[in-house]
Amino acid sequence: ARAGVVQPWFTGSVGSGGVDEARDGHVRWRATDGMTGLAKHLARGVDVRCSCRVSSLRPSGGRWIAAIEPNGGGGEELVADAIVLTAPVPQALALLAAGGTELGAADRDALGAIDYDPCLAVLAPLDSAWCLDPPGAIRPDSHSLAWVADNALKGVSSAPALTLHATAPASRSMWDADDAVVARELLAAAAAAMGGVAPDVDHRAVQVQRWRFSIPTVLSPHPCLEASGLPPLVFAGDAFGGPRVEGAVRSGWAAAGALHDRLAGGGGQRSV
Fold it and tell me: What element of type H or E holds 186?
């Protein structure tokens, strides 16, 4: 907050009628320039590779080899003293499997118990402002729609735009549907939640995102998990610290502490 990267959005909890400030008194935050702006701030001074895909991870000589596939073709391998995996656990395990990396039985069981709900999300730019009241968020009492936010009222968009999140059951049932079908269903549910007032959507610019591993539903009892029998490797994220930003942060701190202890104990602190 002191750096101006995040700002208070509102205080209280969001329900079907909007924000109830008296419900819990908890301050909700927003990233000043959107979530990518927050990530860019945190990554200052860090060697970040964009437009690249990590295809596998494998241990070698007490270190890690990460195979990188740039979008433009070709490829390279990066060598690391330690790895922190914060991707959804199924995706993290797939990276290790692609490199032929085997985890111990206890680690496999602990990670295999973690589960997630999917989420379909719609970003719908509007031609004119809609009828959502400040601060611009509701959780509709709806089978298909879990969240509606007005990005202009939230302060992260200069133009009117809605963010819609489907419920887990609706996300599963519509997962393979065309984007146009998903957008139509969720926008109709948003209109119904606001008494039948449909948003004035710029349909040419609507985007649909599919988050297969969106919300952790079965969590690890620990804030992070350090793999045994391998070079330093820590699993972390909201499936460990709790399914909110705060949980992910707590898990990140725990992962940093675990790596510090491991690397310092191995003959002096090394770069990660």
Answer: helix 179-193
pLDDT in tens, 157-175: 999 999 999 999 999 999 9
The counts of H helices and E strands in the chain are 8, 15
Longest Cα–Cα distance of the chain, Å, equals 66
* 151 CB neighbour count, 10 Å cutoff: 21
**CA distance between the termini of the chain:** 27
Residue type, 136: G
The beta-carbon contacts of 27-34 under 8 Å, at least 24 apart in sequence, are 29/1, 29/245, 30/6, 30/154, 30/155, 30/156, 31/5, 31/6, 31/156, 32/4, 32/5, 32/6, 32/7, 32/155, 32/156, 33/5, 33/156, 34/156
Q: pTM for the whole thing?
A: 0.88
Q: Per this entry, what is the length of the chain?
A: 272
Contact by Cβ (8 Å): 126, 149: no
What is d(CA 101, CA 57) in angstroms, rounded to the nearest whole number?
Answer: 7
Tens of pLDDT along 177-236?
A: 999 999 999 999 999 999 999 999 999 999 999 999 999 999 999 999 999 999 999 999
